[in-house]
Amino acid sequence: MSKQESGAVDPGGAVQGCCPGLLRTPLGEDESVELARVFKALGDPVRLRLLSLIASRDGGEVCVCDLTPAFDLAQPTISHHLKLLREAGLIASQRRGTWVYYRLLPESTDRLARILTRAAAPEAAGA
Amino acid sequence: MSKQESGAVDPGGAVQGCCPGLLRTPLGEDESVELARVFKALGDPVRLRLLSLIASRDGGEVCVCDLTPAFDLAQPTISHHLKLLREAGLIASQRRGTWVYYRLLPESTDRLARILTRAAAPEAAGA
């Protein structure tokens, strides 16, 4: 458990500003908690399929009435999964008349994509 | 629960070949199960920080002896989190002498970044 081989890792203090990239600098504790909540929302097959159905729909919006028939699940279960995606900031909803409509919040998925993208040339950066 | 407003979503059959993009075509059931497992592995603050420490380390490899002191957690807990990251295909490990060394499997995070990236011009694609 000693540090003799290559020095202890300092996990704090490296995350500054927006979106430094998970793979470039050690993630701070606060950001890891916030980010884990978003990834956890994606960590379920039904929620992934819901997000994918919403995101890939032409027009950018899907009625909940069109999402439910795509799953062999009860409406309250679908609604619960949609709520978790909404609370994670991945989708937004709007009620119009009888139905609720869902749309992707692309800035959220853009952020995740950016966070998971490697630096172009890490070796050259410090030279 | 009816489909009258915009037609039912067909979630099947749209996923072909490698990595069609979660946001471009509806995800199939099998891929959603596999992908959810990877996102679930990322859905924990300690695992995110471990992955970030491993990925951002110069030289690309971190001794477990350097990871443990960065957390206020017991060695078996850290090992358990590392095992889940490994089982999700995000990191690889190699024992050398006393210590186990971990490195990022960048093709995994590249894949996630690609899956979360929007199509450049979705409207123009079908014209």
Automatic annotation (TrEMBL), chains A, B:
Keyword DNA-binding appears in the UniProt entry: yes
Keyword line: DNA-binding, Transcription, Transcription regulation
Record-linked SUPFAM superfamilies: Winged helix' DNA-binding domain
Domain HTH arsR-type: 27-124
One Pfam family linked to the record: HTH_5
Xref: InterPro entries: ArsR-like_HTH, HTH_ArsR_DNA-bd_dom, HTH_MetalResp_TranReg, WH-like_DNA-bd_sf, WH_DNA-bd_sf
Name listed for the protein in its UniProt record: DNA-binding transcriptional ArsR family regulator
